[in-house]
Amino acid sequence: MIRTRRHAVAFGRFTRYAGLGGGVTVAASAVLVPLSQWLPWIVANALVTVASTVVTTELHARVTFRYGPPDLARHLRSAATVAVGWLVTSGAVAALYALRPDAGPLHQQVVYLCAAGLVGVGRYAALRLTVFVEHRTVSGASAL
Questions:
Q1: What pLDDT sits at residue 34?
Q2: Do 44 and 12 meet the contact criterion of CB atoms below 8 Å apart?
Q3: End-to-end Cα spacing for the chain
Q4: What is the DSSP annotation of 67-104?
Q5: How far apart are CA 53 and CA 55, in angstroms?
Q6: What is the rounded distance in angstroms from the CA atom of residue 109 to the CA atom of residue 104?
Q7: How far apart are CA 105 and CA 45, in angstroms?
Q8: How far apart are CA 12 and CA 18, in angstroms?
Q9: CB–CB of 17/60 below 8 Å?
Q10: Which residue, 56, 46, 75, is CA-closest to 120?
Q11: Burial 78-114 (b: 16+ CB within 10 A, else e)
Q12: What sign for the dihedral angle of Cα 124, 54, 93, 81?
């Protein structure tokens, strides 16, 4: 019974993470396309990544993990996980243009969103295990 409840809680947490993170990623992607027309793509991606990181850290702290408002240290740890994600998404788009220099915005977005999805799974694990770790009592039961 306890194991079933833990799985249900974990599934609910991951579902909230995917919904919130996916929503912010799609919104960021929609901003990235026009912004990359004015700035180099890698710079536009960095700006969008910083803004979306602040938003998602707040959402994940409060809604996904029900941890409460994140402090500066948690924002910085979350940002570190995003830095890795930025390298992966930027590398994926750079690889696209190296392989297909004529690729248009649709191909760019498909590659970007696929890379962001893979990054998201790894980021969930990092946030869960290092940034928003549950408080534990002496007996090992969750205090939250």
A1: 92
A2: no
A3: 18
A4: --S--HHHHHHHHHHHHHHHHHHHHHHHHHHHH-TT--
A5: 5
A6: 9
A7: 14
A8: 10
A9: yes
A10: 56
A11: bbebbeebbeebbebbeebeeeeeeeeeeebbebbbe
A12: negative
Tokens linked to 144? 């939250």
Q: From CA 126, how far away is CA 144, in angstroms rounded? A: 19
| pLDDT < 70 regions, the chain | 1, 134-144
| Whole-number pLDDT of residue 83 | 87
Instruction: Give residue 138's pLDDT.
Output: 46
| Residue whose tokens read 């998404």 | 89
Give me 36's structure tokens: 């990359």
Entry pTM: 0.70
Partner residues linked to 136 by β-bridges? 142
pLDDT of residue 136: 47
